[in-house]
Inverse folding.
């Protein structure tokens, strides 16, 4: 049987852990939201705008934004991209929005295909004592976490053949039957990026054919992408198909698409 001091110790520990978890869950709530899951930059535009909103109704955020060319470890100081972003650092008050202006600096980019870059938005919540200097010193110690959001920016040159909505129709699918890591291999001859969602290998043309899930990803223009199958494959029938959806310019999923598997 536990004595009183042991029970009290456990009770205090439980309450303390509860307070810590409450603090962490409160601090971990990100507030900044980007308008749109991707941005399209047509070459003829002088600039595009990106709207950020602080959905946290109780506290402001410090926001720092920059672009990189695909390296997630690139900082604003090490990133080298042909774009300028204004403002790159700002305070975003609770419930308020801020528009950032993204401008192409006219440094050369491929004219026969899209290029992709990444917009980074880093938000840092304030510490309590920044807004209440009267807080006692013992209450000023808090956990603070910075959140970074990365979204794609597609630079789209003028005069590209075809349309982004029709790029999926040009894809060519083949199956690599490597015993250790079978994969669907997709070649994209179009000038546009195609980002996939819910890719699967269907073991036959019938609607109820068994499906094997495949990793998703993005295939670049004039490029090939390997999408590993997530489990060992049995013998693949001659009428095997590929089921997939893609993500459009507005960040929405297309209707399910079935494509032929090339031999």
């Amino acid at each position: 049987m536990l004595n009183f001091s042991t029970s009290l110790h456990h009770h205090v520990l439980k309450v303390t852990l509860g307070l810590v978890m409450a603090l962490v869950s409160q601090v971990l709530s990100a507030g900044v939201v980007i308008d749109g899951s991707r941005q399209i930059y047509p070459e003829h535009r002088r600039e595009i705008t990106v709207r950020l909103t602080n959905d946290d109704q109780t506290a402001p955020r410090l926001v720092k934004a920059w672009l990189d060319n695909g390296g997630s470890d690139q900082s604003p100081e090490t990133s080298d991209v042909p774009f300028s972003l204004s403002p790159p650092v700002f305070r975003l008050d609770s419930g308020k929005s801020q528009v950032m202006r993204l401008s192409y600096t006219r440094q050369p980019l491929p004219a026969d295909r899209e290029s992709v870059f990444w917009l980074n938005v880093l938000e840092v919540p304030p510490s309590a004592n920044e807004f209440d200097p009267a807080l006692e010193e013992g209450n000023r110690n808090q956990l603070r976490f910075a959140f970074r959001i990365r979204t794609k920016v597609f630079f789209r040159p003028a005069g590209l053949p075809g349309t982004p909505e029709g790029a999926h129709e040009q894809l060519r699918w083949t199956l690599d039957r490597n015993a250790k890591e079978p994969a669907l291999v997709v070649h994209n001859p179009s000038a546009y990026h195609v980002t996939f969602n819910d890719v699967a290998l269907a073991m036959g043309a019938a609607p109820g054919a068994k499906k094997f899930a495949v990793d998703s990803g993005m295939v670049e223009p004039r490029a090939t992408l390997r999408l590993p199958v997530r489990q060992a494959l049995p013998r693949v029938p001659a009428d095997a198909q590929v089921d997939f959806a893609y993500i459009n310019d507005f960040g929405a999923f297309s209707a399910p698409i079935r494509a032929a598997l090339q031999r």
In short: The first strand starts at residue 32 and ends at 34.
